[in-house]
Write a structure and sequence with these properties.
The chain is mainly beta. The chain has 10 helices and 34 strands. Strand 2 and strand 3 form a beta hairpin.
Length: 695
């Protein structure tokens, strides 16, 4: 009992002596940033809620305590880190303010001058590499501080390059001479290549259902090839990407170099584990534009051999607001769809796609799809069609894949009657029915992507370039009403700022050129289908405008009061018309918040853009600029974001049409409707909600 009481008293005294680390700072460090220094030591400061004096009462956040023993060792850890980084004269001092319960710590660092590398010799690599180029590829260079870690990485870099030119057993010996008094160093990397290796044979293991020929077609290594490690990695990735295998490994059979003289042939082993033959996916969700929606899919892998995949997919949206499932949600849950005529019926898509992973080469893929759909764009158009779309992707698994496709469909595109009357000058109901009747639409498309970003969901470094071209005409099987050329270019770039900050920008531009005028009744029109026109505004475009609200529009009124020469319109509804020219520029600065920095970010952005009805009508005076700010919350599905943008402009003026009780439209002559500018600041703020970054 006495021992137990004594131990409890000792533990209580120890807990009373523990102090919460309320602050941890570094002063005087320039060569090594605060984050690197903080990860090199055991002592760490408490979380934001636990260290901020006016939030401590919430008892939220993690409290981290000061260990006097580890704190003394932290000084040695920092000294060792600086010495490894080339700063042999670095001095680390500490300033600690202790209270009975708290500790406030500061490390004062005097770095001093570093040991600099005067000479870097690479021996034994002359017959294989260009030494000047090789030295430029190394992280350690002459004139830099002599960092031991960079020295090790430089040796590893040379070993990796040896493995890609036929020397898998090559090694690099490191040697250096350091003069701490003179603050200079000379380093030598001695390359021992070992034998040059060719592939003798390739052995495939683990197959039961998939045929061997399928695996052979996917491999980038063949018997008789010079050994290259990157080809092994590429083969492994290609095998895994086709979806047939749960795991795939491509590696050397021998871990030790050949011992017999002249023995330069090795065996490569391909080990695979086959996955399930079928996959079923399903999901449901809610969106402000789609209301409730469901989707599903079924995939058959290795369909009739050859690693082909057959995908059957389907989706239904507008549930609860579109016929035949309309249960009145448009009046409460999905109020954003109240004035949207395109949401009166369910949207659906059904598609069957056959994918061939190797098309004459592992580099190329092909697909053939058939589909039926009814899709709509908010307040603009509805498209119903069935069709087929074969496509071939060239260089599919390399840096710049290019896809050449052909699409053929039979269907109809309908839009608001005022849009057809204003844009295409077709106002008669019979002529509009002719314009929106079922027709053939065929087009040849070419698209290329250069993707060098470091993350699909939340990129912080790299660039993304996308180019798309489309040609539709009678030559490729399209109806005479659908003849035009369409081009679009999008460039995005991401620049890291510090450890958690990102400066991102994007430029998107496009143009549509109709090939000829088409006569509908007595009207000569340049018809571009509404589903192929450009639209602007929304969470992924110019965020100061609601979805599709940027650019030309037309207005419809069912009540007009005439007072002399003045006309007043009531119950005015708007319909975006889209355009044939587009320009959008986005710039965004994202940085972590002090509260939950790993889970939440703040974004400051400026969006610039405009949509023009015709290519020859573009003008810089029409450009709209909308600044704003937003929050980003990290989730497994990507960042969930809320953006608020300020729009100080009045809505675009446009022609106004009078709609009588029989829904006939009449253009109000010599009248242009100009909506008033919102009267207050808060009415000019547009709030956007979306999942994923804007670009």
């Amino acid at each position: 009992m006495l021992v137990a009481v004594s131990a409890a008293a000792s533990l209580a005294a120890q807990q009373q002596e523990q102090r919460v680390v309320r602050s941890l700072a570094f002063e005087g460090n320039h060569a090594i940033d605060d984050y690197t220094l903080s990860t090199a030591i055991a002592t760490s400061q408490s979380s934001f809620f636990a260290r901020t004096w006016w939030l401590r009462w919430t008892h939220l956040g993690e409290r981290r305590y000061l260990s006097e023993v580890e704190f003394r060792r932290d000084v040695l850890r920092l000294l060792l880190l600086y010495r490894q980084s080339g700063y042999v004269n670095a001095v680390v001092d500490t300033v600690v303010r202790r209270t009975p319960r708290d500790a406030f710590i500061k490390f004062r660092i005097h770095e001093g001058d570093p040991v600099r590398l005067l000479r870097l010799d690479i021996i034994g690599a002359e017959p294989i590499f260009n030494l000047s180029q090789l030295k430029r590829d190394l992280p350690l260079r002459v004139g830099d501080p002599f960092n031991r870690l960079s020295f090790q990485v430089s040796a590893d870099t040379i070993v990796a390059q040896l493995r890609n030119v036929g020397y898998p057993y090559g090694t690099v010996l490191r040697n250096f001479d350091e003069d701490d008094a003179a603050l200079t160093a000379a380093a030598t990397l001695e390359v021992i290549t070992g034998p040059r290796i060719w592939i003798r044979d390739v052995v495939i293991q683990g197959l039961s259902r998939v045929d061997t020929a399928t695996v052979w077609r996917m491999l980038s290594v063949k018997p008789g090839d010079l050994f290259r490690q990157d080809r092994l990695y590429l083969s492994q990735r290609d095998l895994y990407d086709i979806g047939v295998f749960r795991s795939a490994n491509v590696l050397l059979a021998d871990s030790l170099p050949p011992t017999a003289p002249g023995d330069t042939l090795v065996r490569v082993v391909v080990r695979v584990v086959e996955g399930a033959g079928h996959r079923i996916l399903g999901g449901m969700g809610f969106g402000t534009i789609d209301c409730f929606r469901v989707q599903g899919g079924w995939t058959a892998y290795d369909f009739f051999g050859g690693a082909r995949a057959l995908d059957l997919t389907g989706s239904v949206s507008k549930l609860g607001v579109g016929r035949p499932t309309d249960v009145g949600l448009r009046d409460n849950v999905c109020q954003s769809l109240q004035a949207d005529s395109t949401s009166d019926t369910l949207n659906y898509t059904v598609g069957l796609t056959l994918r061939q992973p190797t098309f004459f080469s592992p580099r190329h893929t092909a697909r053939l799809g058939v589909f039926a759909e009814r899709r709509s764009e908010f307040k603009t158009y509805t498209r119903q069609d069935v069709g087929v779309n074969p496509a071939v992707t060239i260089n599919a698994r390399r840096n710049i894949p290019v896809t050449i496709g052909y699409g053929f469909s039979v269907g109809r595109t309908t839009a608001d009657a005022a849009v057809l009357c204003s844009v295409f000058r077709v106002c008669d109901a019979n002529d509009q029915a002719l314009l929106t009747s079922s027709r053939r639409f065929a087009a040849v498309t070419v698209s290329g992507v250069r993707n060098q970003v470091n993350s699909v969901l939340d990129p912080t470094r790299g660039s993304l370039v996308t180019v798309g071209l489309m040609h539709a005409s009678r030559v490729v099987g399209s109806d005479t009403l659908y003849e035009f050329n369409r081009g679009e270019l999008e460039v995005s770039r991401y620049h890291p700022i510090g450890r958690r900050g990102v400066l991102a920008w994007r430029v998107r531009t496009g143009a549509i050129v109709p090939l000829r005028n088409v006569t509908v009744d007595t009207q000569s029109v340049q018809f571009v289908p509404p589903d192929q026109r450009f639209y602007g505004g929304g969470p992924n475009s110019v965020r100061g405008y609601a979805r599709n609200e940027l650019g030309p529009r037309v207005y419809v009124s069912d009540s007009v009061v005439v007072n002399g020469t003045e006309r007043t319109f009531f119950d005015v509804q708007t319909a975006p018309t889209g355009g044939n020219a587009l320009f959008v520029l986005n710039a965004e600065l994202r940085f972590a918040t002090p509260v939950f920095p790993d889970r939440m970010r703040v974004a400051m952005f400026v969006d610039v853009g405009q949509v023009w009805a015709r290519v020859d009508q573009t003008s810089l005076h029409d450009i709209r600029v909308t600044p704003g700010a937003g929050l980003r919350f990290a989730t497994p599905l990507g960042p969930v974001r809320i953006d608020a943008a300020y729009n100080g402009y009045a809505a675009e003026p446009g022609p106004v049409y009078f709609q009588d009780k029989q829904n006939n439209l009449t253009l109000v002559q010599n009248a242009t409707y100009q909506p008033p500018r919102p009267a207050t600041f808060w009415r000019r703020v547009i709030v956007q909600f979306a999942v994923g970054q804007a670009f």
